[in-house]
Write a structure and sequence with these properties.
Blueprint (H helix, E strand, L loop, with lengths): L3 H20 L5 H18 L10 H10 L6 H14 L8 H15 L2
Length: 111
Amino acid sequence: MINKENFEALQQIVDEARHQSEMVNGEGMEQVNMTQTILDTIKDEAFGNEIAIRWHIEDIVERAKDRGIVVLEKDARTILQRLDHNHDCYYGITWEMIDCATDCLLDDTNR
């Protein structure tokens, strides 16, 4: 788990890398910026500035299993991708939506 001291040490490393990159005409700046983005994400999650609800393909497979349906991992991945791209931002992703997305995928593949 990251604490404030560890985070500050990581930030110092990124700041030093940025300074070094600026000294050599920006070489490596893309990597420094990417690292800063990752560090910002870690900070947001570690310090409660942001939350993320995560669904896993195992959730899809197990839910289908509970309903007496067999869903392969590759199909569960497709279902998750469809849910991610098409969910309603007001309601998020619910078990009912997962059921509907599973049924739609099975309908599509059985045609």
